[in-house]
Amino acid sequence: MSMREPGAILLVACYELGHQPLAVAWPTAFLEREGYAPAVMDVSVEPFDSERARRAKLVAISVPMHTALRLGVMVARRVRDVTPGCHIAFYGLYGTLNAGHLLAGIADSVMSGELEASLVDLVRTLEGGSRPQASIRPVLAKLDFPTPSRAALPSLKKYAHLERDDRLELVGYVEASRGCKHLCRHCPIPPVYGGRFFVVPVETLLADIRQQVDAGATHITFGDPDFLNGPGHALAVARALHDAFPTLTFDFTAKIEHLLRHRDRLPELARLGCAFVVSAAESLSDTVLAHLDKGHTRADIETAVRLATEAGITLRPTWVAFTPWTTLEDYRELLGFVESQGLVDAVDPVQFSIRLLVPPGSLLLDSPALRPFLGELVDDQFYYRWIHPDPRMEALHAEVSSLVAVAADRREDAAVTFQRVRELADRHAGVAPRPLSAPAARRKRPPRLTEPWFC
Description:
By secondary structure, this protein is an alpha/beta fold. The chain has helices spanning 22-33, 50-55, 66-82, 93-97, 99-102, 116-127, 190-193, 202-214, 231-244, 256-261, 266-271, 286-292, 298-311, 328-340, 391-409, 414-428, and strands at residues 9-13, 39-42, 58-62, 87-91, 109-111, 161-164, 167-174, 177-179, 197-199, 219-222, 249-253, 274-282, 314-319, 374-378, 383-386, 448-449. Helix 1 (22-33) packs across helix 6, helix 8 runs parallel beside helix 9 (231-244) and helix 14 (328-340) runs antiparallel to helix 16 (414-428).
């Protein structure tokens, strides 16, 4: 089979936060522009297709996050079973971070960064019958972006929806920029991008948004690591979106410090259709925030909540609730803050179970503050173990994780789950738990995506 025959190249998505996988749609477009006809598969919403794998000479597996990598390794093993001679490539942030393990028998190639042109080069090399040279260096060259190719992907109906005013709406997903100019120590992006980011032309974004609106999307998620890395570009994108689609709403992710720095732009973003903003607040402990090099303080978080509220935007903070430096009182204080600030319905309960993930290549591995708690690398799970100095926190993490997983499976009211998490924390602290109260079933809840997992 020639590399130009349909299905000779198979691009596989494993998990992308519950949205239709842009990390497959873009490489597909780059390959199609060069005359190739890749097949696609998203194992997060459809079963593994052995026939598609059997026809492929190259299988490229997208691994932008930890969950995707763990699933991707299972996919790679199944591919090897059905087509032993196939070239298997992993691409995305977690490919490079775990390249040593992947290239020791699971993968033939690993790519990350602005990788699509390198993927085309890999296909050409295989097409010419040559053996590709192994390289794990991230690619950080500016690309000429085509409109992502989504025609072969599963329908938007199979992915996360927007829950708003007791109804579910279809959601599209785009990225106005890739990479990040910040160097937060716990983030997987800095080891790959090294503080660089690349913007996507407005016209390319609008073309991608248009095809998703045509597919039924009424809301768009901007999945940039930080939409406000380039504030001028972000505002130009939001204005162009509103001009083209006046009823379309959107959400984006931005650092707390950016929300403060660009506070004057928040009211306009709200008028342009911003329904909510996700921000990695991570912790209320200034000690923890310093160890993570987040660039903000607890006081900044409080200010950001107020600014977003005044602008008419819901702030949905995310948290790393368990770190080696987070005390039990810190944890209980976090719960108290969420309650007092009226954020119970703005925080998915899974956030109260998130444990600091330390993958290979993490900037935290150079942190003297982490060293006393750091354990061994768990090769096949792609993270370093760490142990909390307070056994109560280890026990609390296990119990909260179990509680929120079960609650999510049965679609429990987030306010009920919150109260049960708070009760667990009080018990571990030796404090008499407060009585549970039934939340108002018909209360006004802020808009949210129906996929709460995110790593």
